[in-house]
Design a protein that fits this description.
heterodimer, A: mainly alpha, 32% helix, 6% strand, elongated, B: alpha+beta, 2 domains, 9 strands, Gas vesicle protein (chain A), gas vesicle (chain A), GvpA (chain A)
Chain lengths: 62, 300
């Protein structure tokens, strides 16, 4: 067992908090808060990491 | 053309100055917008990137999202050094300062309650990973003889898959114990869904992905407890992140979350899934009805 303390914050930890946490404000005076969730981000991460020639593994994400 | 207002956080007035060179999202410095005894931390962002439509499109772009998230976090981090900010969700944008002020008036009471509740607290992230390959390597180091026959081979294969189940169970039991210990030392906790290994790039499967709300003064002791989880369980890894602003604790609860602890702690991985499903229904927080999510990317 090892305990790791990272210096640089991993993007995924950041997104866990910035996209799933924080106060959500909705209302007429705001622009609609962006509707983004981690499922879609996962898709994007895969799109950019999957070679264009290789079909993306959508099946695994259902 | 003037820009839109990106809001990072709301906080109480604080004496200390923010770092002079601080840069937030879109390369803009944050400004303080005081109103009714509270302060919104905002920066001007260009309409071409942060109006509703372009913002939506940008959020599909992982590089843009990463840069924006880092900018947001840089400001929240700087605020955390001088006060206890109430962080807002990434991408909270208003047309102008007066829109921000109206929002602050409308939510003044709930902001004050949340700031009182979070005052002097920080968030620590704790994740447990099971690295099956490492665990198997440790297992394989134990002498078990060479397969002398087909039957031996099948038996060994069966044992190996049973031992994978065992390791998974051990990892869940370990996570359960760790979570019990840590939640006992925290004022509140949240179980986040396990992280996708493709996105995190981390080795192994994420078994526990928890956030704990801890008073600053108790943080050192909390970190020490996490450190002491070192034992000889092969293939398990604990990662600690923080201190964070209390991103995971900004919802308003009538009941302390600890009341739900036993059910959730029993099976961390499954409990997390249900936690996520319940997340939008926190009490006390006016929420717009959620739009049904359209099936997406299926034809992509």
């Amino acid at each position: 067992m090892t305990v790791v303390e990272r210096r640089e914050i991993a993007l995924v930890d950041l997104l866990d908090r910035l996209l799933a946490g924080g106060v959500v404000i909705t209302g007429d005076l705001t622009l609609r808060i962006a509707d983004v969730d981690l499922v879609r981000i996962d898709l994007n991460a895969l799109i950019s990491s999957v070679n264009k020639q290789v079909p993306a593994p959508w099946g695994e994400l259902e | 053309m003037t820009g839109l207002r990106y809001v990072y956080a709301v906080c109480r007035p604080f004496g200390a100055a923010l770092q002079a060179q601080l840069i937030g999202v879109a390369g803009a410095p944050p400004k303080l917008l005081p109103h009714h005894g509270l302060i919104a931390v905002v920066s001007e962002v260009p309409e071409r990137d942060f109006a509703e439509e372009p913002l939506k499109a940008h959020l599909e772009d992982l590089d843009w999202l990463a840069a924006t998230a880092r900018g947001h976090q840089a400001v929240i981090d700087a605020l955390t050094a001088v006060t206890t900010p109430l962080p807002l969700r990434l991408g909270t944008v208003f047309r102008d300062d007066s829109g921000v002020r109206v929002m602050m008036e409308a939510r003044e009471d709930s902001f004050r309650r949340a700031l009182d509740r979070l005052e002097g607290r920080v968030e620590w992230g704790v994740k447990v990973y099971l690295d099956l390959e490492a665990a198997e390597a440790a297992e394989a180091a134990r002498p078990q003889g060479k397969a002398a026959s087909g039957r031996d081979y099948l038996r060994q294969r069966r044992m190996r898959s049973r031992s994978q189940d065992d390791m998974w169970e051990k990892a869940e039991a370990f996570s359960h114990r760790l979570h019990e210990t840590l939640s006992g030392r925290a004022e509140d906790f949240r179980l986040h869904p396990p992280q996708n290994p493709t996105l995190s790039g981390a080795a192994g499967r994420n078994v526990l992905n928890a956030a704990y709300l801890v008073p600053r003064g108790n943080s050192e002791a909390f970190v020490e407890v996490v450190d002491r989880t070192k034992d000889d369980a092969p293939g398990l890894r604990v990662e600690l992140t923080g201190p964070w602003a209390a991103y995971s604790f900004t919802e308003f609860h009538e009941e302390p979350a600890k009341a739900e602890e036993p059910a959730k702690a029993e099976e961390p991985a499954k409990a997390e899934a249900s936690e996520k499903a319940e997340a939008p229904k926190k009490s006390g927080e006016p929420q717009e009805p959620q739009e049904p999510r359209e099936p997406q990317e299926e034809d992509a």
